[in-house]
From TrEMBL:
Signal peptide: 1-24
UniProt-listed InterPro entries: Bact_solute-bd_prot1 (IPR050490), SBP (IPR006059)
Species assigned in the record: Natronospirillum operosum
UniProt-annotated location(s): Periplasm
Keywords: Signal, Transport
Entry protein name: Probable sugar-binding periplasmic protein
Main localization category: periplasm
Length: 414
């Protein structure tokens, strides 16, 4: 289907100016932010939207990303689309744009200069499709973090680790002190996310790009890949028996309450520590990488705005998109969420030391890597995820055999 940029309907264009007066509408927003920290963050969006417009934010929180995306998709296909829906920075919504089911945000992007203020540019490029812009990035999330209980390591009499190899060395001391060394939930996405963090820590940026972008089987057979698999397998013995089916924020709470030493989880976990009143550097540590040479991927969340038949709803959609990207809201939302803002002119004086560390890394283009979802299809990702889960659940798998299976996946990847 060929898309061309079209002028926004008159009422929507008027909604973009401060002098416009439009009828109040109820705008339903589907998202999956249900934990304490996530709810605090999405409340920023809701409160600011209702305070700055005459419209109402109708909250439609659905636990779990896949469930929320599935519900939004069903609503769109069924002819009852929500006003906005959360997706990830990925190719998840490309088919919706191709089918003409999403609002083209290009007029707003041009008016507000999104190409000048959103960084890195790659996260906006994900939203592009045949000359239009069909999503709005609202944050930058990275998986490349570990969260450590400072009192737990002090109780065990060992130093905080800076790398995963160092963690493996001190994990027995935590265990002997009655502390679960490695906290993780049994949900597949938690295990696979941790696996990718371990992989990047050993491959580095060059190896990561050869693995995901170039799909080079030789990388899978190399010593760095072997080291990543060995670390991943070793970490399993330092988990607790209650990890099966435990959700991520309950797992984070084990670190917050100093029952566990370390959790690998994306920077959204910082919101849970903030909600608990924890102080970074005193109660917990945020370990980038965790590596001496840390990188951050530029994943995160976007919102799509399904096409509507009512021009007043469309006008409200443009107002919501504009509000989400405003400097004030970007600062408030991302500080609550634990993520980094998508624009580089935001006053982040309220940022804590963990966010400041993330911003410092993000300021160096060489420290940024695209999310692997930009290079591989959902089918290839599924094959890799299934293999990582098998490795996690079967400690008897040989490293060389695992490497060969990854090499085979890469050799046959799209």
């Amino acid at each position: 289907m060929n898309f061309t940029r079209k002028l926004v309907p008159a009422i929507a264009a008027a909604a973009l100016s401060s002098s416009a007066a439009v009828q109040a509408v109820d705008l339903e927003v589907i998202h999956w932010w249900t934990s304490g920290g996530e709810q605090a963050a999405v409340t920023v969006f809701a409160d600011e939207f209702e305070a700055s417009t005459d419209h109402n934010w109708i909250d439609a929180a659905i636990a779990g990303g896949s469930a929320a995306r599935g519900a939004a998709l069903q609503r769109m296909l069924g002819g009852d689309p929500p006003g906005a829906a959360q997706f990830n920075i990925s190719r998840q919504f490309e088919e919706l744009a191709e089918a003409g089911m999403l609002l083209d945000l290009s007029p707003l992007a041009e008016q507000e200069g999104w190409y000048d203020i959103i960084r890195p540019s790659s996260i906006l490029e994900v939203c592009e499709f045949e000359g239009g812009i069909y999503c709005l990035p609202v944050n930058i999330h990275s998986w490349q973090w570990a969260w450590a209980s400072i009192p737990a390591f002090e109780q065990a009499g060992v130093d905080l680790p800076g790398t995963l190899n160092e963690f493996i060395e001190v994990a027995p001391a935590l265990q002997e002190a009655g502390i679960t060394p490695f906290a993780i939930g049994g949900e597949g996405w938690q295990i696979n996310g941790a696996a990718r963090v371990v992989l990047l820590s050993q491959l580095g940026k060059e190896g990561y790009l050869r693995f995901y972008r170039d799909k080079d089987p030789e990388v899978a057979m190399g010593p760095e890949m072997a080291a990543a698999i060995e670390i991943f397998q070793n970490m399993k013995q330092y988990t607790d028996d209650g990890s099966a089916n435990r959700n991520w924020n309950d797992t984070t709470n084990l670190v917050i309450t100093h029952q566990a030493g370390l959790q690998i989880m994306g920077d959204w976990a910082r919101g849970e520590f903030a909600m608990a009143g924890m102080e970074p550097g005193v109660d917990y540590a945020c370990l980038a990488g965790p590596s001496e040479d840390p990188y951050l991927d530029t994943g995160g969340d976007v919102f799509v705005f399904p096409k509507q038949s009512d021009p007043e709803i469309e006008a409200a959609q443009f107002e919501l998109a504009s509000m989400m990207l405003s400097p004030r809201v970007q600062a408030l939302f991302n500080n609550a969420k634990g993520s980094l803002p998508v624009r580089d002119d935001v006053d982040m004086s309220i940022a804590d030391v963990c966010m400041q560390q993330g911003l410092e890394i993000l300021a160096d283009p060489d420290r940024i890597i695209p999310p692997d979802s930009m290079y591989i299809t959902e089918d290839t990702r599924g094959e890799m995820d299934d293999l990582w889960l098998e490795v996690w659940n079967n400690p008897n798998m040989g490293v060389e055999n695992i490497q060969q299976r990854f090499a085979n996946i890469l050799a046959n990847a799209d």
